Amino acid sequence: MSKDLNITLLFDFYHNMLTDKQADVIDLYYNEDLSLAEISEHLCITRQGVRDNIKRAEMILKDAEENLGLARRYIAIKNAAEEILKEIEEMETIENVSAVPWIAPRLKRMKKQLEIIKE
Question: Do 39 and 54 reside in the same domain of the chain?
Answer without folding.
Answer: yes
